[in-house]
Amino acid sequence: MDKDNNPDLAKMEHEDINHLISFLTASLSRMEIAEQQGASYLDSVSSHYLESARNLLHYLSLRTHDLRPVQEDLASLGISSISHSERYTYTNVQNVLTLLHLVNGKTLNEVKAMGLGLHVGFPRSKQRLQEHTANLFGPERHAGHTRIMVTLPSESASDDSLIHALVDMGVEILRINCSHDDQTSWKRMIDSIVTARQRSAHNVLIYMDLAGPKIRTGKIVPRWSKKGKRKDGYIPISEGDLIQVWKHLEWGEPAICNENGILEERARIGLSIPKLFDQVGQGDRIWFDDGKIAGVIEEISPEYWTVRITRTSSEGSKLKSEKGVNLPDSNLVLPSLTEEDRRTLPFIARHADMVGFSFVQRPEDVEALQSALDNLGRSDLGIILKIETRLAFDNLPALLLTAMKSPKVGVMIARGDLAVEVGWSRIAEVQEEIGWLCEAAHIPNIWATQVLENLAKTGLATRAEITDAVAAVRAECAMLNKGPYIVKAVKTLQKIDDRMDAHQYKKKPALRPLRVAQDFLAGL
Fold it and tell me: Model pTM?
């Protein structure tokens, strides 16, 4: 390369190149140290994940630094940057260093004598991810294909027409949500899947979710129509209202006012998991109904919290029974594998190809599931870590490395609960970071929650959800929820996948420091 004939290259002084060489050489040393510090993880992962676990540690080490200036300097030299090296981090940095030394005047033999050289890392790392994806989700129809998972509605237990339609369309995975229905209904769905699978010779896989410790609102006294018909109860709520959330309450009820409209008793509602009652603090935020209603815990008494409602819809909201509750500021200690999950797990072990681990948060949660599956003789069952809390995201590196003890692992980016937990302004950033960490670990991920939801429910897609679906097909699997137009939604997603495969393969990040990487390595 001739500086005199290259104006961009001329801008880069000799000492600046040396600075890049020094930084990247130190980066390789830091990766090796991270590998040594993570030896306990490497010693316990399945053999086919060893290279992947090592690469994850390298990537975490690299991402503890702000790499944006490095990228700019490399780009000005015309050298490929390190912004797309999640899956082959160490090799890519070695290659960049080799090119920098060549630009600086060294010969290739001199560079090789330094232990460097040009190595082929991308094809091998791509093959690793493809192998892990095929082991978990089955073979791909074409290169770069995104598998599609569809949640079955309760009606599929009595009407198998949707199951047969989805199998005929080539849907790879059918999901049974064990938060709903019962084993009798699940078995009917599974029997229909097996029949459809045999008829079409398409090996559709069965995914079953454990319910997990989902925090929900308690029951609310029913209403009665003028004709004496029973209706579901609800609590009308407006911004600024105070409501009571009780530790033990059989039936919640709306506020009671006297005949002059003066408040006599505040609205009351119970919680599905009383044991978390003492794990919150005054000032903690609380969200109801997947973030539709927001509040702050203003007072804590032995029996109830007093919550100030800070956000509802413009016309006010209706808080109903069995709606999700999120406490993003509270460090909740709950068993991710509940007693109900332990009763359900033997059924899942007999019939499913993979199990979704809801509300997993800590490495010991993963170990508890692995132990339970081992006792059931199903240590081979695919495990999907559902990342739906802030703590799960913060612990994701340790969760991945622990899960790699199992032979088949995936991650679901559960964007609904996760958005409430980390904040709506951060969910786009967080879901990208999860994707990068999964790439570095060669672990397939599932893009979930509200994918083409409006299309599935109404038959009409919004522009925003089409754009979101384009992002979804960058993942190894995209999950669609149930709806009367779900077949149309599947066809649309398949078309998007087919068209976008020619235009994109992942996205290149800007590589600012990742706090999740810094925190993990600081704890080793």
Answer: 0.88
